[in-house]
Amino acid sequence: MLQSVSSLAVRAPEPTSPGIRRALAHIERHFTEALYLDDLAALAGLSVCRFVTVFRRQVGVTPHRFVCRQRVRYARTLLADGVPAAQAALEAGFFDQSHLSRHFKSVYGLTPGRYLREQTQAARPRHGRIACPPAAPFSNLPSPRPV
Questions:
Q1: Is 124 helix (H, G, I), strand (E, B) or coil?
Q2: 62/56 Cα distance (integer angstroms)
Q3: Distance (Å, rounded) from C-alpha 19 to C-alpha 54?
Q4: Model-level pTM?
Q5: Tens digits of residue pLDDT in 19-42
Q6: Exposed/middle/buried for 51, CB within 10 Å: 0-12, 13-18, 19+?
């Protein structure tokens, strides 16, 4: 009836094994390309099902979510550099702009358009007003929400 406190606690990710480190290195080099679980599992020397389980335990998220977060972070840097959202989506490895928007919002809690608007508002000087310290820029975006 009663569960132990340790079973209710969220476990910290385990240290990564050499196989998972190989898969992570491959993802970091090729996240803008199509990635397949079969290939990542082979790099790790595991079956696909076992790879997903071990990856989630050791990294803290599933391989798909990890890849999506890598792509969203890259897209955010492209957007900050002035690249149009549709082009940033394609360059980051998303199918289209709506695909980027969905994942961007799930990671950062706002759409790419709103992110850009808030970036420009924070950077725009205000004339004719009493000088106040500027609001914190979006460069201090919170890290992706844990899932």
A1: coil
A2: 5
A3: 10
A4: 0.72
A5: 999 999 999 999 999 999 999 999
A6: buried
